[in-house]
Write a structure and sequence with these properties.
CATH architecture: Alpha-Beta Complex
Shape: globular
Order of helices and strands: EEEHEHHHEHEEHEEEEHHEEHH
Number of domains: 1
Number of strands: 13
Structural class: alpha/beta
Bound molecules: uridine 5'-triphosphate
CATH topology: Spore Coat Polysaccharide Biosynthesis Protein SpsA, Chain A
Strand content: 25-35%
Distance between the termini: 53 Å
Helix content: 25-40%
CATH superfamily: Spore Coat Polysaccharide Biosynthesis Protein SpsA, Chain A
Number of helices: 10
Radius of gyration: 19 Å
Strand order of the largest sheet: 8-11-9-10-12
Length: 286
Amino acid sequence: MTVTTAIIPAAGWGTRMLPASFSVPKELLPVFDRPSIEWVVAEAVAAGIERIVLISGRGKSGLMDHFDRHPHLESILTKSAKDEAAAEIVKRSKSCQFIEVRQGDARGLGHAVLCGELGFNQDRVAVLLPDDLYFGSPSALSELITLSDSAPEKGVIGLLEVAPEQSRKYGMVGGVWRDRQMQIDTLVEKPEPENAPSNFAITGRYVLPRQLFDLLRNQGSGALGEIQLTDALQTLAANKGMLGMVPSAKRYDAGDAEGLLIASLRCALDHGSDSLRARVQAELQQ
Ligand code: UTP
């Protein structure tokens, strides 16, 4: 059976997005014409995901509201001859089954992923970090699932080649390439360039075997009292249980204001009307 459930951890503080994220969850800030999280959900749905377990926290109930029905607004839109906008709300709410799990204490990404265990009963689950947006076809997650289908007992991570000096910003991996896939043997959190095992960084797309949840449960807290996902992934890698690949779709980091702006421009150019495209290009040339 293939992967049909995805966990989206969204309970973090979003400090890189302050002050924009002070009272609005950063995942609801728009990328072009819709909240950034809607692009992530669309990617998941395009990859065959049928159920999304959203890991949220205090002040983040707007995330579930966004994917809910809005009967009053729908009837106002219908009465104002905006049937298409009303239909869009219905379509969005039916695109997937949404389940919310509150993390309570933000005890790290590993802990957030572990909270999502409540929401699935399969051998594997996808994890999408909403800071990372992938635009393009095939959807990044669908390529990862295809690779995972060929080795379902292993974990799969989306990778990105970065300039050496950028290693300080990412989890970096090392391993052996065979065609488009890397058998990962090392993961290092934010190393100095001279200590990075390669130029390939971990991005926010994973397909994880159930075994990873046992590792997370048993590994206890690491740095800052947090349960680190990387530690559990390292254990899988040490047992030849981690693969990586660079998805064909292009990745944007929407986790800070600059990245969000660039992702918005990309979307406007790709999805906007011809006149919008011309306006953006003219504006950028001034
Ligand atoms: P980050 O470490 O990037 O944290 O989390 P953040 O809070 O989102 O952003 P900054 O760095 O403070 O600006 C990576 C992903 O893990 C989720 C976050 O919501 C984000 O999607 N996360 C992190 C949780 O869900 N719970 C946690 O305890 C920590």
